[in-house]
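Summary of Year 1 activities. Much of the first year was spent building the evaluation harness for sequence design. The harness presents a backbone, in tokenized form, and records the residue chosen at every position. We chose the following record to illustrate the format because it has been used consistently in internal testing since the harness was completed.
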């Protein structure tokens, strides 16, 4: 390259095209929270619980693949739309100030375009199942869109998040069986909803000081000084609901072992949040990935040894 051309490229202030593309991809990936897969696990575990129970331990491989991919797409889309809705709030919260939309790294129109692409991709793979599942998916998409605005309107937006995040449960039953969702499916949905309220309250406890300043509502604020006691009570309700579910569908010893492990993890979370320290509240939140995994391991092993 001639010296004058090199000098012009150096003075242009622009990164080489491959680096510029890589930077955009990185920004979009961070906007989708792909660097923080905890949300994928929290969304995926109840779906897997439902798939294994609906399929009596033998879910259809294609349905399994569709729901795993769909979970990644839907969680990514939810993160993008949530950040779009909170783009004027996140810059004022220490934990979220460096998010791509909050920092200006990604523009609002880019986020909306990415959200549409992800939702269309998720809808496309759901159409590979059946009409009942597709109709449920549309309802789930509406919940995904509505949730980010709830923190401005109601005192307990975590319950709306629970409606959305647990929606994979009835969808999994519909996709696996092709039949209306049974009572056990709705019981599992309620259990998953309670679990979402638990872990998102732990999450909100880390932001309580900032949320109070900004006028943002959450169950952490609503519960006040009763937050730890209420979380403990909800954990008992969750485990009791899962015990009832296990009896209804005939799960046995291994499921009980899984629930026992989950109960111990739940106690660990209560210990972490006992002083309401933000970092430990986030650690308690992240611990729920193991909590959900313990329950799934119990379901998986119960069906596995039953058929052995």
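For this record, the design step produced the sequence shown next.
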């Amino acid at each position: 390259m001639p010296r004058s051309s090199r000098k012009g490229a150096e003075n242009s202030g622009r990164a080489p095209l491959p680096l510029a593309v890589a930077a955009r991809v990185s920004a979009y990936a961070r906007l989708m929270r792909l660097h923080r897969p905890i949300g994928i696990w929290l969304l995926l575990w109840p779906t897997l619980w439902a798939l294994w129970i609906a399929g009596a331990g033998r879910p259809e491989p294609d349905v399994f693949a569709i729901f795993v991919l769909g979970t990644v797409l839907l969680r990514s889309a939810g993160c993008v739309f949530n950040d779009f809705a909170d783009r004027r709030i996140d810059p004022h919260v220490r934990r979220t100030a460096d998010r791509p939309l909050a920092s200006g790294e990604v523009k609002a129109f880019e986020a909306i375009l990415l959200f549409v692409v992800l939702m269309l991709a998720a809808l496309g793979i759901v159409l590979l199942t059946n009409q009942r599942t597709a109709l449920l998916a549309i309802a789930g998409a509406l919940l995904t869109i509505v949730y980010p605005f709830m923190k401005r309107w109601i005192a307990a937006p975590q319950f709306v998040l629970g409606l959305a995040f647990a929606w994979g449960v009835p969808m999994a039953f519909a996709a696996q069986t092709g039949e209306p969702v049974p009572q056990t499916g709705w019981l599992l949905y309620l259990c998953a909803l309670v679990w979402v309220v638990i872990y998102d309250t732990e999450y909100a406890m880390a932001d309580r000081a900032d949320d109070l300043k900004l006028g943002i509502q959450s169950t952490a604020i609503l519960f006040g000084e009763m937050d730890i006691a209420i979380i403990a009570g909800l954990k008992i309700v969750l485990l009791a609901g899962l015990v009832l579910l296990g009896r209804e569908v005939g799960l046995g010893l291994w499921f009980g072992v899984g629930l026992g492990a989950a109960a111990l993890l739940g106690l660990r979370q209560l210990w972490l949040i006992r002083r309401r320290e933000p970092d430990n509240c986030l650690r308690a939140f992240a611990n729920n990935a193991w909590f959900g995994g313990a329950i799934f391991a119990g379901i998986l092993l119960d069906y596995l040894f039953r058929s052995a």
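Residues 36-307 form a domain with the Tetracycline Repressor; domain 2 fold (CATH 1.10.357.140). Quantitative recovery figures across the full test set are reported in Table 2.
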